Amino acid sequence: MTATYHDDLEFLWKKFPGNAVWRRADTHKWYAALLKVPQSKLGLAGDEIITIIDLRLATADLAKLIDNDRYFPGYHMNKNHWYSIILDGRVTDAEIFDRLQTSYDLAH
């Protein structure tokens, strides 16, 4: 992110030191959140802690994307504009980077 967008992770919550956001420097809007949460927060069985990334997407495209396997409704975000990806390899890095670009563009 730093090399591409010149934005550093911002660790905003003392209670959750592993959670952070990326924010556009020009608009100060978030375009991604990196979070550690129990998998049950995404509707999955169990309480194993997983790492997710929340990204923006146009509302019209969200319903087509959410499959509750690779893409989930945005954890702790407005589910009309955000979705979550578990960072466990089920979505390729290349696809995540493409989706990051879309999220960045939407945070204008």
TrEMBL record:
One Pfam family named in its UniProt record: YjbR
Signal sequence extent: none
SUPFAM superfamilies the UniProt entry points to: YjbR-like (SSF142906)
Protein known as: MmcQ/YjbR family DNA-binding protein
Organism whose genome encodes this protein: Lactiplantibacillus fabifermentans DSM 21115
